[in-house]
Design a protein that fits this description.
504 residues, globular
């Protein structure tokens, strides 16, 4: 993800291999067919009579929004073009066809009552500067600075040392350390870094032993699970939090530290279960492992400022309810400090995962369109969400999310489902109250997204681990399915208990 990461060459190689495969004639034909299907389906939804949808009072703008939403869904599922490109196209389509700055022939000459309410183009474009986006930028900047100063290597070495040299505890160490890193760094960057540290260990283990499979699988499993621990750990968390905290929506004011308070115990339990599972399925033949992690933390004044700022930032995030400083605001502290002292330069800014930010922003734009056009209101009025069984809605949405996340981007899954479920949740708040309310619904989606790790294509950490050549696809699928089932059961049990007890 970042060129400064020791494991970046692995990521870069995978990227180029993926590009090469996509450029083959066969793949190109498949992509064109998928693209054509998505466009034709969207055009049909755009052009058919409005009363075909069975939504009373549906306006032209709302119908266009439905068509664009369907286009986004199909494009994210098919991946005919990169997911972030789809987000950009969606934003452009919304602005040119449904906003108050759309092309004249999309709004002139149509009676106002038929046309419906136009979306503010400023609201759509503001998605790219949403506070959640700033939160992610702060997280990316922290990760880059930690790598440049050697803080990541030093922390990994210090954190792994207490686990000793016994093979089973070394495995536990990699699970825990990877999980902790993934709470504050991107899952992809964490996996790349930890696989780099793990590479010499894998080479030293017996070729006929299963222990190396356990170690190689530990990285993607813990990266995916650990990311659930903080709002910045993975995009689905941030997407869910945005809708939960939206002042014009649910306005639940869930803080960074509050999220960690109930999610970190959950991640710890899941990681311990993963440890036992990996030891059971892939026992070590070699009883001891000696780790030799290269890299030293720098000791110049700039690096010391980075260490102090890193600690202060995490402390402010954890105590945001006490200090009263919003976590999104706190995220700008390391950006300002690191840029001011010269640790981060313009080249480092190029290494931020802008594709993730664009992807998230595209999902937010869809949510804006749903609300501002009035489509969300009409959906609530036309679909009897409040009559549905709350347990069916909550558990069913989690299962759908988990299934989708195994085949498409976790971010895309959350971006598609969260706006719809937020609408559904608002309409059935009273029914959901006994199970924890809308929080259970949306946080459950974030959990379901992060647990999708059955296939090498499910997540970048899975792809990186599979590229080591140590893991067979059926081994990854076996572990992914078991961890998914266990995680969903434990996750929803936790959410329903906390929610029904008034603790969520």
């Amino acid at each position: 993800m970042f060129k400064s990461f020791p494991g970046f060459h692995v990521v870069e190689t995978l990227y180029h291999l993926g590009q090469k495969r996509r450029n083959t004639g066969h793949m190109l034909t498949q992509r064109m067919v998928k693209l054509a299907f998505a466009i034709i389906t969207s055009l049909v939804l755009w052009l058919i009579p409005a009363d075909s949808f069975g939504i009373e009072g549906l306006t032209i703008i709302e119908q266009r929004t439905i068509a664009i939403f369907a286009f986004a869904t199909l494009m994210w599922v098919f991946e005919a073009i990169p997911a972030w490109c789809t987000s950009v196209v969606v934003v452009v389509l919304l602005m040119f066809t449904t906003s108050d700055s759309s092309l004249w022939f999309f709004r002139e000459g149509i009676p106002a009552e038929e046309l419906g309410k136009l979306t503010s183009y400023k609201s759509i474009m503001a998605c790219f500067a949403d506070p959640i986006i700033m939160l992610f930028i702060g997280g990316f900047i922290l990760a880059i600075a930690a790598t440049k100063t050697g803080l990541d290597s030093m922390l990994a070495r210090v954190m792994l040392k207490p686990f000793g040299t016994q093979s089973r505890f070394v495995l536990l160490g990699f699970l825990v350390v990877t999980g902790v890193f993934s709470m504050f760094l991107s899952n992809t960057a964490t996996a790349a870094m930890m696989l780099t540290f793990l590479a010499p260990v894998l080479k030293a283990l017996p070729a006929d032993g299963k222990g190396k499979i356990a170690l190689a699988l530990a990285i993607p499993v813990s990266a995916n699970v650990g990311g659930m621990g903080t709002p910045i750990g993975t995009p689905p968390n941030a997407i869910a939090l945005k809708y939960l905290n939206d002042p014009e929506g649910m306005n639940l004011n869930i803080g960074f530290g509050e999220w960690m308070a109930f999610m970190i115990p959950f991640t710890i339990v899941v990681l311990v279960i993963a440890w036992f599972l990996l030891l059971k399925l892939f026992p070590f033949k070699q009883k001891t492992i000696v780790l030799d992690i290269k890299g030293e933390a720098k000791k110049d004044w700039r690096s010391i400022v980075v260490y102090i700022t890193f600690a202060i930032t995490v402390l402010l995030w954890v105590t945001d309810k006490v200090t009263g400083v919003n976590s999104n605001v706190v995220a700008m502290l390391p950006v300002a400090v690191f840029c001011a002292i010269g640790v981060i330069d313009r080249r480092d800014l190029e290494e931020i995962s802008w594709s993730v930010l664009w992807m998230v922003a595209g999902g937010f734009a869809l949510g804006v369109a749903l609300n501002e056009t009035g489509l969300a209101t009409h959906m609530i009025q036309s679909i009897p969400f409040d009559t549905w069984s709350p347990i069916v809605v909550i558990v069913g949405s989690g299962l759908i999310c988990y299934a989708m996340a195994n085949f498409i981007s976790h971010t895309a899954t959350a971006a598609l489902l969260v706006p719809i479920l937020a609408v559904a949740g608002m309409s059935m708040q009273e029914n959901l109250a006994s199970l924890g309310g809308v929080s259970t619904l949306l946080i459950g989606v974030a959990i379901g997204s992060s647990l999708g790790m059955v296939l090498p294509i499910s997540t970048p950490p899975n792809a990186l681990a599979h590229a080591t050549g140590m893991i067979k696809q059926n081994d990854m699928a076996k572990v992914g399915i078991i961890m998914g089932i266990v995680g969903l059961v434990l996750g929803y049990t936790m959410l329903i208990f906390l929610g029904s007890s008034g603790l969520l």
